[in-house]
Amino acid sequence: MAERHTGFSRRSVLGAGAVAAGVAGVGLVATAGARSDRESTSPAREAFFGAHQAGVGTPPQAYAALIALDLRPEYATRAGLTSVMKLWSTDAARLTQGLPALADTEPELASPPARLTVTVGYGPELFTVAGLASHRPPTLMPLPRFSVDRLEARWSGGQLLLQICADSLMAVSHASRVLTKNVRSMTTLRWIQRGFRNPPNSSAPGASMRNLMGQVDGTVNLNTPAQLDSLVWDTGEDQPWFAGGTILVARRIRAEMDSWDELDRTSKELTVGRRLDTGAPLTGAFEADEPDFEAQVNGISVIPENAHIALAHHRTEAEQFLRRPYNYDDVPAAGQTSDSGLLFLAYQRDPATQFVPVQQRLSDFDALNPWITPVGSAVFAILPGISDGGFLGEQLLG
């Protein structure tokens, strides 16, 4: 992708008074458990421009970094936000195609891109602090408090989101550093969460991932363009600028691995409602088999009513959303043996009618609750895509 295709230069952005100073920034380091021995060196590229941002409907990559930032008070304006968006758009358009950012101090790290995607979102608070409250999508609302939540501020909220995914941890690390260090004079870091899943070359195309509790995760999901059009992408009816965007619910769910390890295999399968080896429902033989929640043996339900699968199953067509989860395995705190779990990422038009009803059932009755604890939560409006020559957020910022 040639530099002239970005539609604006680094000089024009800096001339607007938003100088991104310094070379120090936030880098990502790999934990030993997160690195694959077969990490991809694929030169494959995901398109940056389009009606929707890449990184939502894109087949999941092996590695992810979610980075939440806040605007510094002096840049919490439409002009300040525009400067950040232009910087990110310039750099992301190049990095995703294997080209170094315009001010890249380590240009050799830009290739191969390994299906790198950079996805940008706005949190609810941003619209208020930047004077854009009247333009906030009505579907972008803080989630209600659930009884199982044990949320920590260090994993929650955020005005801006960078979701960076690739099949190479090097590509994720480099893009994360470039995109954060170049706006550090205008933003402050709130949190970083890193995740991983099996790389594409280790399983069949489209195969569900496994979480660190050993469960097949994401069996029931949205897969077709028609499903995404009806359940994920916003139509722009309420906020025309948001047409083609979506709402992301990001939840950090800690797995209580030590007590989970003490549970026998049969109890684990009854808790989940699926076989651990194949992911098949307890009433089926294959992962894709439709569960039979009415099946009984000697008057006892084969799938318990409070099994995770029974409560997570959508009651209506509207209770569906796109799942794109990642595992995390961080350094445990002193005295602990693990800090592992799931970065649960759900994309939808309206969390109030899609995610919240499902999560409310799970919060109230899920048999899995003793072994999982939500410790982080955030919602973001994932911006619509852009055409060559545009910048992310231009539909709102002009």
Question: What attributes characterize this protein structure?
Answer:
single chain; 398 residues; alpha+beta; 9-stranded antiparallel β-sheet; two-stranded antiparallel sheet; 10 helices; 13 strands; 20% strand; disordered N terminus
Count of discrete structural domains:
1
Uncertain stretches of 5 or more adjacent residues: 1-41
Number of helices: 10
Shape: globular
In short:
This protein is an alpha+beta fold and 398 residues long.
Fold and architecture overview:
- Helices cover 21% and strands 20% of the residues.
- It is an alpha+beta fold.
- It has one domain.
- Strands 1, 2, 3, 4, 7, 10, 11, 12 and 13 form a nine-stranded antiparallel β-sheet that branches.
Write the layout of secondary structure elements.
Layout: H1 10-15, E1 63-71, H2 78-95, E2 117-122, H3 124-129, E3 160-166, H4 169-181, E4 187-196, E5 209-210, E6 216-217, H5 225-231, E7 246-255, H6 257-261, H7 265-272, E8 296-297, E9 300-301, H8 308-312, E10 322-323, E11 326-330, E12 339-348, H9 355-365, E13 372-382, H10 394-397
Antiparallel strand pairs: 1-3, 1-4, 2-3, 2-13, 5-6, 7-12, 7-13, 8-9, 10-12, 11-12
